[in-house]
Design goal:
Blueprint (H helix, E strand, L loop, with lengths): L4 H12 L4 E7 L5 H8 L4 E6 L6 H16 L11 H12 L8 E6 L1 H4 L6 H11 L7 E7 L2 H9 L11 E5 L4 H10 L6 H11 L3 H4 L8 H10 L8 H5 L8 H11 L7 H8 L5 H12 L3 E4 L10 E4 L2 H10 L9 H5 L3 H17 L1 H8 L6 E8 L7 E9 L3 E8 L9 H18 L4 E8 L7 H6 L2 E4 H4 L3
Parallel strand pairs: 1-4, 1-5, 2-3, 3-4, 10-11, 11-12
Antiparallel strand pairs: 6-7, 8-9, 9-10
Helix pairs in contact: 3-4, 4-6, 7-15, 9-11, 9-16, 9-18, 13-14, 13-16, 16-18
Amino acid sequence: MIGRSSQEQQIERLQKSQKAEFVAVLGRRRVGKTYLIDQSFAGMICFQMTGIQMGNKAAQLENFNRKLYLQAKTPFISAPPGDWGLAFFQLRTYLETLPKTTKQVLFLDELPWIATPKSGFLQHLAHLWNDYLSKHNHYILIICGSASSWITKNITNDKGGLHNRLTEIIQLQPFTLSEVKQFLNHKNIQLTHQEIARIYMAMGGIPYYLDDIRRGENAAQAIDRMCFTDGGRLRNEYDNLYKALFNHAADHERIIASLAGSQKGLLRKEILQISKVRDGGPFTRAMDELITCGFIKNINQFAKIKREDVYRLQDEFSIFYHRFIKNTRNQPKGQWDQKSTTQSYKIWLGYAFELLVFRHLEQIKSKLGISGVYSEVSTFYYNFGKPKGIQIDLLIDRMDQVINYCEIKYYDGNFAIDKAYLQDTLEKIIKFKEATKTGKQIFVTFITNKELKENEHSKELVDRTIVLDDLFSG
């Protein structure tokens, strides 16, 4: 398995555990949660059920009944149970027929779809765990769902019978660049780092998306076929992405759309103004869910209070969709080649590369040799939008009295620092020091997709250079 070494270690511990385990597997839609469980617990799963999207209580119970019939191998299929109390009684009766000397895994996939409102599912699941499963050390109960916020609210933070019952949380993140390279190599696809980065900036490190890349395609061809061709895997992906995760997803989609149009992120008041989502409960609920599910990241502003956090959309595909796919219908094949020559494409490259950098902060810290040094990542706006205002995209504030001031630049060739760029950056550093009153050492770190062209100005300004190849480490 590629890119899941820490999760495999967690699973190995679970398989060797001498007690019952209650596990939640979390991660963005299409990130590979079900695949991880199916592969890791092959031959150990005694009951598995996937919720039916938009199914009511009766549909979920009928689905449960059929799964139990197939997995228990009963001679006939009975009528579906009328409620979850009876359903779990039938499940318990089946479980008691199984060997107790080997691990028995129960896997409930897409749990938020199963637990329909007022169905009593969660109460009866809590009873099954507390009254039976937890008392036998050979059981592993695994719940899974792409709506991490739902599981956090209804399982992790439950005030009833499920409170504090989870024994393990397995969190899956999108692949890193290095893992994408391994994944493609496993498919016998050899692409340069620049080509892999262009694919990543469009669709992120989502295994389900990456699995559709074909041998012999470059980045532009793969993106054109998958995103702009009728029948392409990502042609209509966005239409169901948020609706599958959230009830009343309109607010979520409006927040996403407002952030997709922002190059540097937005403050809370700006998102409210652009999205038109009602302030208070509706906005807070949608924003919290999007952050918990990993679509949005709130980044501290250096030396500022929390309510002035900058919010950035960090789902590559959602950004790409709003920039290029939305409102493109019935257009000829090969349109991505045309779009990739436009100014909007060049602007997107800079934006997407910044997100790529934020996705790979651990690799950057490793290259700087500060992995073992406690540090905090922030951005900095000062008099933002004013002629004399400054904006710094990335600061790494270190406990060893150093701040890495990071300049992020995506450029077709080897970027050359000229005198004007040098003076502008030095002035920004002076203003930053004055505004924050920091006495820490400032090291200028230049992060770019290709090697920086060395000249007298780069020698004066830049302390360390990090290039795209460095983000493929680890």
